[in-house]
Amino acid sequence: MLIKRRTFLKAGAAAGTLPLLGKTAAADEFKAGYVYVGPIGDFGYSYQHDQGRLAADKALGVKSTYVEKVPEGADAERVIRSLADDGHKIIFTTSFGFMDATLKVARDYPDIYFEHATGYKRADNMATYNIRFYEGRYIQGVIAGMMSKAGVVGYIGSIPIPEVIMGMNAFILGMRSVNPQGKIKQVFINSWYDPGKEADAAKALLDQGADIVAQHTDSPAPLQVAAERGLKGFGQASDMIKFAPNAQLTSSIDQWDNYYIDRTKAAMDGTWKTGDTWGGLKAGMLKMANYANMPDDVRKAAIATEQGIRDGKIVIFKGPINAQDGSAKVAAGQTLNDGDIASMNWLAEGVEGDLPK
Amino acid sequence: MDSAVFVSVILSVISAATPLLLAATGELVAEKSGVLNLGVEGMMLVGAVVGFAVTLTTGSAFLGIVAAAFGGALMALIFSVLTLTLLANQVATGLALTIFGIGLAAMMGASFVGQPVDKLPSLYLPLLTDLPIVGRILFGQDGLVYFSFVALGGTIWFLFHSHAGLVLRAVGDSHDAAHAIGYPVIAIRYGAALFGGAMSGLGGAYLSLSYTPMWAEDMTAGRGWIALALVVFATWRPLRLLLGAYLFGGITILQFHVQTMGLGIPAQFVSMLPYLATIVVLVVISTDRSKIRLNAPACLGRAFHVTG
Known about the structure:
In chain A, 41% of the residues lie in helices and 19% in strands. Chain A is an alpha/beta fold and 357 residues long.
């Protein structure tokens, strides 16, 4: 069922005036609600969440509602509240900026289960979940380290939050594991999704001497730029090989399917418990797109790295790690715990340029 | 900066400026006739999705571009019927047109998400295109880039060197006087508004077929508003429009180079510059009334009601 925000709010208001009717209708079936920050047509982050929703609907025969393009802010709370009012038993809010709104609504509706992606605030009826995207970025770094002739990768960042910073650091650690001189040139475009700006940033980075493009933004535009110049790059969130059949090396693909199926099922049979799930390659929440457009030895190294992360033989944020200015950040033998990773606000050695302030 | 990088930066600037120039040229003509259509963003999006859809389904980029122009013009037709025939408020209708266009384009484009299309072919002339530096810049662009210049030149000629252009400007400056002399004010405004819509559609098509050859929701990302600002920035003079579009485009590209080169200038400040410049221009032209009277259409945004 597709409901745009505006009509949805109207429907919510109408349901509010007829509370009895709303309740009897809702009692018959289990309904799940999803709140997306972007359009499901972004072919990236929100698109992958929606694929997860569809998988859960199909597996469990659940009726779900989604609301797309919800701004992070006051609007989000209204949307979440309307979903709660409307009899949805489990509500997934899929962007960092929905955190406080979700928590507020969760306190008012103790009987409804809330699931917030990429955040850190929890309650008895509000769990958090996230993917260890940085694992995929480490593999990308290894590939880039072996493939880049210049030893310079152009990295398009979105917004300088820990999620993006840990990805950038994981990338340079992977890159330097095979090429100790490897460098990242980075640019932040201050948006998750703006194909034109992403393309412009990619062009600027390639003009500045990078010969591989990596991105933490959601459109295939940077890959297209790389392809046009006969260079290589990495997709984001979904498999973007169609847009650049000769340029995409791999892509970290978000796999929300199993999580949505498990959690919805738990909510249906009453076994739902709050908690924090942060799964990566091992948990099957992250998948790498086919390793393409690379020589065999690079492919083998990529596969070995992926296997190493899965087995726990490769621990990405393990010392010694130097900060950007060369000072020791993580001592040899030390490993960052999840809390340290989740709040990362420093760049590792090899990343050029400051974080936007 | 070696010459290859220089060429590449110039090429990036051209592609950043072209959609702005196309849309702004159309809006300038519409405004010169007294029609203030704030729906540029919506018209561009409809042009982008129509151009993409037709190119993908027919395999012909030319048909796609023509269809994009029609798509934009159709949006402008809705606007014109509402504001020129039914005399609705132009500002409110234009804003509504943008919101409508965003939704309409998203709906039409839903099945085209995630599909690639070939980039518009670039001109290739043996020898000329291979010239160092100027070769690719002058002789290696795609059709819409050349068309943006042709359209601008045509607009200058039309507005300032043809009788029809004089009439159009007269309608924009004083619709009552133009009407009294016997010119069909409404029909002329329809024509100008439709031209504006068609050019916005082409600007959108440039985005979805050349800039980033794909369809994605909201892919104009505010460029329609920049085009509107450009018309004011240019004080309704086509040549200044060209300057403005390339200045905006240049700054778009420059902000990323500033970031990567670590010059210590905050990138946010650089990306603010064009808007600051627009505000400064607005202030300057507003303090000097003679400058406004010289170029701004006196009847801009005012409804014309036929009396007597």
